[in-house]
Task: structure prediction
Amino acid sequence: MKSIFYKSGIIIVCFILFSSFSLYSQTIDIKNHNNQTYIIKNYNSSKSAIVPVYGSENITVNNNISQVIQYKPSSFNWILKFTAAGKVFKDISFATTQAGYIVTELGSVYKTTNGGDNWTSVMNLGFPYYWYGVHALTADTVVIAGFNNQGNINSGVVRWSYNGGATWTGDINLHIPNGVGWLSKVHFFDRNRGVVSAEFSGGMHYTTNGGKDSTGWTYVQVNSDLGWFSGNIDADANGNVFTTGIHFAHSTDYGVSWVSGVPADNVFDGGVDFADNNLLLGLTGGGSISPSVSGWVHRTTDGGQTWGARLNTFAYPIRSVK
Result:
């Protein structure tokens, strides 16, 4: 049985116009405040995501005071195991039932060797690094992906550790021809073949030789309109990769080539997961934060060729599905 999880957090928007560009019915606004860059994703006149988000304050939008929004899920029975002050957790990966890693905004990586009971810091770079993806291939070999907030807007960053986080490689910078090149989710099928998402511009980098330097990666523009991805990707050992957002996209050859189509929802899709081995039964999430805050899921029984109506309406957007 698969379960649907949703993230909670604080959403703050700081509006000082830096630049923006329009992509058909979507827009991606690039804002700058206190030397930090923010990307605001919009679709069908609705704000769908604001990243990265850090801090806590009231903001003024169109001369109206807007208070900080705090989401507090109350219906799940969870045991708090770990907090890191001032950090936003973005992704988690376990190589075994005991060995796992968490990556955060503001350049931190945490490691557990006892199934999540205790966590230790194995990287703490601080600003301007933001880690949005992690994949632990083994307990000692782990890859992280994200971006340097003060670097080239067309580039993202990958780093490796081969000794359980004791030491890390330098930045492996991956560039895209156009758009925002910041990286997010990363997945390796084996030690040679892997993908990393340039989600803000709807593209993927893939590697067939381990991706140990920038020459080992090849970029594919999955969405011709630069439509962004959202949430987790779903991948299997046979080379299938699914990703969602403004489009629903599928690769059958380890991310080398892609078919990109319409999303399940006309707002956006948030993550995807297929529950069966024949890749027919799947779920995708979604939601909005403006003008109202809500979330939903859609279900497919034919591998994403068609999707049903919104199954449920939640109080919060569904960003990832597993």
Notes: The two ends are 10 Å apart (CA to CA). Residues 10-70 form one domain.
